[in-house]
């Protein structure tokens, strides 16, 4: 068996392990197991069931952050999520994808950074290399292809600024985490 085949097998086992972890009850158990895979996740975060995490050892999630049901967190090129971030259900964050113009369909990407107090609404998509500035809101169904400035609200495909947000944000989402869900 070649070393490439062994690496693929290891990757498949890790993917399945993360899939099993995503359906376990209790945030603390899911977070504990993800931390054992080298993810840097605050114990004051909440990660709801059904998530998909790629390369958990390149993932960092701050305190008070809530990750909704069926969220996809691609950390293969790095993913940093700040404090008190609300990532709603079925959000997809990608740090790696294919170059459709490459003759070999090569993978390309960059780390994604989600700063403090950001709200990513349901089914929004964040593409590789994007930084979402502090306090920004990404509307439901938006596709973010470029950096989002702090305290702006963006929506659409591709996402464009549609409003501004209050800059005096001071909330702690860790109190909103339901323990079993």
UniProtKB/TrEMBL annotation:
It comes from the Bacteria. Keywords: Membrane, Transferase, Transmembrane, Transmembrane helix. The chain crosses the membrane at residues 12-33. InterPro entries: Hexapep, Hexapeptide_acetyltransf, Trimer_LpxA-like_sf. Coiled coil: none annotated. SUPFAM superfamilies: Trimeric LpxA-like enzymes. Belongs to the transferase hexapeptide repeat family. This is Acetyltransferase. It comes from Mucilaginibacter dorajii.
